[in-house]
Structures are given as structure tokens and as C-alpha cells.
Amino acid sequence: MPSNGPPKTEPRSPEALRAEIERTRAELSTSVTALREEVAAAVDWREWVRTHPMAAVGAAFTLGFLLGQRR
User: Fold this and answer.
1) Domain limits at 51?
2) Is residue 6 part of a domain?
3) For residues 48 and 56, is the Cβ–Cβ distance under 8 A?
4) CB 27 within 8 A of CB 19
5) Name one Pfam family in it (predicted).
6) Which pLDDT tens digit goes with each residue over 17-54?
7) Taking the model in full, what pTM does it have?
8) What are the helix (H) ranges across the chain?
9) What's the pLDDT score for residue 1?
10) What total of structural domains would you count in the chain?
11) Residue 40: inside a domain, yes or no?
């Protein structure tokens, strides 16, 4: 016989719901902090130069060359 919808669960107590909300809030806070750190590292030009030194030199050379050609 096919089942009709999701299985029935018993209602949780207010204390259990509050505990789950607090646990979810803590997980969300940790995720937001990690995301902030990743974004800060991604847009920090010093970090980019540190991890890609040859590309940074190439970009600086190209930009200097292009700006020098404008005259």
C-alpha cells in the first residue's frame, strides 16, 4: 500500500525547538564568519600578489606598457 506523504513525527517540546534554533544560529554564525574571511582574502590584493607573484609582475608590466603607449 503506498504511503501518503512524509512520515508522521511527534511534536517537539518548546525546549527542544529552542535548542535546535540556538544550534542552527551558532552554525550560521560560524558559516558567516568563514565566508567573511574567504571574501576578505579573495579581494585582498596583497594576498593575491603573495599567492600569484609571476602573474602580478606580468600584470604590472602590461599595465605599465599600456600606459606608456598612450603618450
Assistant:
1) 15-69
2) no
3) yes
4) no
5) DUF3618
6) 999 999 999 999 999 999 999 999 888 989 889 999 99
7) 0.52
8) 14-43, 45-51, 53-69
9) 54
10) 1
11) yes
